[in-house]
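Structure request: tRNA modification GTPase MnmE, Caulobacter vibrioides OR37.
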Amino acid sequence: MTDTIFALATAPGRSAVAVVRVSGPATLSTVKALCGSAPSPRLAALRTLRHEGVALDEALVLRFEGPASYTGEDSAEFHVHGGRAVVESLLSALSDLGLRLAEPGEFTRRAFENGKLDLAQAEGVADLIDAETEAQRRQALGQLGGALSQRYDRWRDLLVQSQAMLEAAVDFPDEDLPEAVAERARPALRTLKAELDLALADVARGRRVRDGFRIALIGAPNAGKSTLLNGLTEREAAIVTDTPGTTRDVIEVPLVLGGYKVLLADTAGIRDTSDAIEAEGVRRARAWAEDADLRLWVVDGFHVKHRVELEDAVRPGDWLVLNKVDIAQTLTLDEAERWARGEGLEVVRLSARSASALDDLRSRLAAAVADALSGADFPAATCLRHAERLREAQSYLARALSDAGLEVELAAEDVRLAARALEKITGRVDPEDVLGRVFSTFCIGK
Ligand code: GDP
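Returned structure:
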């Protein structure tokens, strides 16, 4: 029999109200034991909670009868005063009554197991709780609402239909040439393959929304990268000095731009060095910059002598930040800007010490991030787990398409495997360890 579980669902610590949740078969008897009598389902009732003759608190009590509850089981919520002692006394009373403290994500896991939501939606719940930006919130809510799952399910249904067609072609070869029947399954599979290709191309966008758009500040020592990073984030994250080579590693600072999460990194000055530790810093800086979504080359506008190094390294779409305009010569800046535009770079002239220039740069960056991450109107797959399974489905489908004209049986098997890959995303089929991994990322009480 299933245990009845309990947990504090709100953040621990002192607060106006704290919510303690209970779910499982012993819910009703637990509510009766604490309240004397159980309130009607779905009606909030004010009750004095008592345990062993001692009053614990005046609480608002809500009871749900399964399957019409979050977990699909009988469950209840106690809204108590949010003092530590109150919460402690209720939790220990529940433990005395034979209930067990929930594991992380166990309420949602039960909801999943009772068919209240699928695995992709459950991940949406976790993402919504973790959401810090407007874009993360929208994305997680879409996923929780099932928009993503509906798309996966639709694809899976199409695959199952095509599989049936292909198998029919094998089983009744007399009626028609199997190849000719199989040929009829092809257009649908081709359309599906195109949709999968698009979704995979969009995975990077979804992940950037969730994990952060990466902007690298690159440039020679003393160009002003640390000053710029501290200015943009309004924090003292990076050390600013006039000794070249102070930033020894990659300093990554999260910030929100235009409603999107951004990771801004100050990389160790990219240069040749004989110092081993510094060389490692340079290596990491290169790797971070290589992987960044946007690269800002910061140059000391006073002596733009590092242009030679830049010439091999810049890529169209990178930005050139001509810093220290307060002390630089206009002619030098004009010349650098002309060169940069010829290379396909965006150019920003500023002084990293000027607050208004930093505001302007922040808005330009926000627009660039929004441009890169908004767009496609369907929800993007957000995590690696989805991307891996989508890739798997894509490759089976590609093989099925190349086989379909030749070996109908093989094609049918590939289509079946593609459908199975998609089923794994929504958790229709999946081994225990995957479920364990997904739910262990939750907090207790969810
Ligand atoms: P990093 O090595 O690229 O991180 O460079 P820092 O941010 O440490 O800056 C190197 C030096 O340049 C420091 O002394 C900064 O105060 C100075 N600096 C940075 N930005 C400006 C600027 O816009 N104007 C002037 N005049 N000095 C700046």
